[in-house]
Write a structure and sequence with these properties.
The chain has 291 residues and is α+β, with helices and mostly antiparallel strands. It has two domains: 172 residues, Nuclear Transport Factor 2, Chain: A (Roll); 107 residues, no CATH class. Helices cover 41% and strands 15% of the residues. Strands 1-2-5-4-3 form a five-stranded mixed beta sheet. A two-stranded antiparallel sheet has the order 6-7. Strand 3 and strand 4 form a beta hairpin. Helix 6 runs antiparallel to helix 7 and helix 9 runs antiparallel to helix 11.
Amino acid sequence: MVVHSAAGSMLSKYPHKTKEDQTNALKEIIQQVALLGLFRAGFFDKAAFYGGTALRLFHGLPRFSEDLDFSLMKKETNFSLEPYCEAVQTELLAYGFETEVTHKKKSSDTAIESAFIKAGTLTHLLKIGATHPAAIGVHSGELLKIKLEVDTDPPSSATYEVKYLLEPIPFSVRVFSLPSLFAGKVHALLCRNWKGGRVKGRDLYDFVWYVSKNIPLDAAHLTKRIQQTGQIGPKESLNRTDIQQMLIKKFKDIDYKQARHDIVPFIKNPDEVNIWSAEFFSSIANNILIK
């Protein structure tokens, strides 16, 4: 099956000299076609897009992102991602992407619905016209994977906006507002349950981006998120000083070597994270603005 010309032309705006360039470009093109499939299925009538991929596609975050993260706007206990998986697979096939979109059955009592998009990396790079992918290290058996997650029990107080993508055709996506996106990122930094000082370097990178852009933090939404995951009580609230102190405490315990290793595959210039340290992050935490 030949890839639709609109999908093939999307490759031209990406650098594709290295294996990482090409696989990141392919992943982002497939992400955008998947979002179009969700739009056609009416998904954004009840859900909103958040996370690193939302920040990259709609606000120009200068790093690639792997997953598609969503949240329902209201709790829906019986929500299933399965019919939307079918819509995504149909859309991808219409653009020539022969993928497998699989709904993951819940193995425990969780509010997260998830699915995976899987595609042969080399096959699809050749389809979209990438230059000699095999010669730069893409092997025939490599599999591209994109995870979709939907929070079906969303914390309250988030705000949203409707944004537009122009490729592969113009369409709309409901997205968390920047202050609410920032709240979600700070919650991830503070509350991801990893041991040994490990964090996602991507969370730290995004934190620097938000602060550098003077994006105000939605303290009300952050409070609801932290209440939901149990780090504070249901009647407690957080002010600017509380948030800064929690962050500074977290920054003291991070393994920055591991964090830099995590982010490097997603950015163009590894030198920009050389300065990362507890002192650096504690200092810029003082620059946080609160909404």
